[in-house]
DNA sequence: ACTCATAACTGAGTGCAGTCATGATTTGTT
DNA sequence: AACAAATCATGACTGCACTCAGTTATGAGT
């Protein structure tokens, strides 16, 4: 078996490098200053590409944010999911899934809220958007799985309720009204709502 | 008691007239073409005011949309609220409140979704925004009142559940994924979720 | 009637996301 | 090696929401 010789041509490698540079530049600038305080020009400059090039890799600035942050949310979900396995109470287990996501979302409030805005109002056909939606689906599946532990929740009801839970999460994290709330306050707020809908 | 002689000076009257012209122009253009296909310039022109003047009456284009549409939602709520009184089943009564709002929201899909986006992500301190939030509060109160008919729902739980219902409504109407769904489909979708959380 | 202070109006100007015609690179073909 | 076709990169450009320095209208005071 010979060494696999990078089955890609120069073109593919260049593209990958550019994508990496853009991702790195955007990650750093967004984290430092927040998405609204960074221009796409600055990202292009830092990544050492033309301004138009950025938009070959992400169709909008919002998509660029999704590209940069999806991995964080995915990680947060996995952490919560495994935590939830060690928790017996259903409500506590649901909250174990939710808490790391809220924490991830609030690492930088503006970025977190913009991420959510993009998810709901952006174009779901864009690849990074689709990935974000896939994470939501996985989150709802994880919540549904926990809900099914309770024998008071039916198979179908679990999926529906999980969707309701994600609606609750969305509003609690996104609303401008709650902009200045801490992670703990938001989690508490979500908990109260989830608690009300468990039979 | 003498006739109250318009206690306002020329200044106040001029302001009111400008506001009326701007509101009329925006209402018409938004309805005809959709918020994204109309520029603030065009609204200013149609209202016969300077471009800057528009922004004295609404701080952003989004606020302008709230200004124009708030009354419609308020009316829709009142219609639904009175309809709900004639419906005995709790779930049906909640849906009686919701349906006119969804219908109002879908009169023009893009405007409806932008309205919701502005409500959640806009600046709640702006007057038209505050009014929109007040309508949401009244909607939740109406839903809570219906929920309290059921003796299985506690006093506090009713308010919490009503808030959950408005989260469900928001996502069902706002998400790009559901952009092409009809009013009936959306109402059905909401109904399924609300049904799942009634005890 | 005249002056002054204040509130309201204005449109040229600014900054930024996103586009597109043109040019550069790479790959496939002979 | 030479050419053609396809893909990718670029930055000057466009369109639009929003601003602000300068102007005008109003009302209060004398």
From TrEMBL, chains A, B:
<dbReference type="InterPro" id="IPR009057">
    <property type="entry name" value="Homeodomain-like_sf"/>
</dbReference>
<feature type="domain" description="HTH tetR-type">
    <location>
        <begin position="16"/>
        <end position="76"/>
    </location>
</feature>
<keyword id="KW-0238">DNA-binding</keyword>
<dbReference type="InterPro" id="IPR050109">
    <property type="entry name" value="HTH-type_TetR-like_transc_reg"/>
</dbReference>
<feature type="DNA-binding region" description="H-T-H motif">
    <location>
        <begin position="39"/>
        <end position="58"/>
    </location>
</feature>
<keyword id="KW-0805">Transcription regulation</keyword>
<protein>
    <submittedName>
        <fullName>TetR/AcrR family transcriptional regulator</fullName>
    </submittedName>
</protein>
<dbReference type="Pfam" id="PF00440">
    <property type="entry name" value="TetR_N"/>
</dbReference>
<dbReference type="InterPro" id="IPR001647">
    <property type="entry name" value="HTH_TetR"/>
</dbReference>
<keyword id="KW-0804">Transcription</keyword>
């Amino acid at each position: 078996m010979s060494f696999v010789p990078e089955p890609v041509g120069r073109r593919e490698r260049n593209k990958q490098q550019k994508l990496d540079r853009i991702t790195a530049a955007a990650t750093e600038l967004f984290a430092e200053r927040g998405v609204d305080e960074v221009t796409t020009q600055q990202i292009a400059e830092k990544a050492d590409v033309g301004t138009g090039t950025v938009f070959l890799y992400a169709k909008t600035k919002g998509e660029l944010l999704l590209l940069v942050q999806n991995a964080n949310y995915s990680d947060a979900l996995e952490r919560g999911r495994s935590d939830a396995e060690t928790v017996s109470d259903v409500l506590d287990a649901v909250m174990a899934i939710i808490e790391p996501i809220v924490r991830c979302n609030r690492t930088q409030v503006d970025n977190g809220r913009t991420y959510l805005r993009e998810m709901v109002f952006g174009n779901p056909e864009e690849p990074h958007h689709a990935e974000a939606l896939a994470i939501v689906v996985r989150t709802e599946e994880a919540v549904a799985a926990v809900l099914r532990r309770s024998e008071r929740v039916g198979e179908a009801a679990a999926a529906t309720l999980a969707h309701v839970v994600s609606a609750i999460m969305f509003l609690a994290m996104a609303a401008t009204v709650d902009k200045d709330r801490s992670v703990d306050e938001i989690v508490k707020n979500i908990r109260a709502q989830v608690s009300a809908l468990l039979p």
